[in-house]
Amino acid sequence: MAAVLSAMDAELSAREARRDKTRALENAMMQELLSGRTRLL
Question: How many helices (H) and strands (E) in the chain?
């Protein structure tokens, strides 16, 4: 039982880390677009 909970906790932590990285990337891309340095054709 403890092993299952530990594995679930590790999976949750990994998903949260991926979500945080994705949000940071999204924010960086929006800053590039809003600053005018990058343009979409």
Answer: 1, 0
